[in-house]
Task: structure prediction
Amino acid sequence: KMVAPILEELSKEYEGRLVIYKVDTDAEQELSAVFGIQSIPTLLFIDSEGEPMMQPGAFPKHIFKKIIEEKLLAPVKTEE
Result:
């Protein structure tokens, strides 16, 4: 419950650059099982290269922003 308002703020701040989805694990039990979610909240980040990173627990807003800027919105690495 304390993460939802932060995610809503971040969704507005990064609109057009980042997509944030919220899943009701009670209603979506099959989806929760696929991802092995066992604690609430659990956050799944997928970076610009498509690499998933799952993190159980909540963060303060400044940590979310750091992850977004450094991992999710970082330029895609290309091989030369």
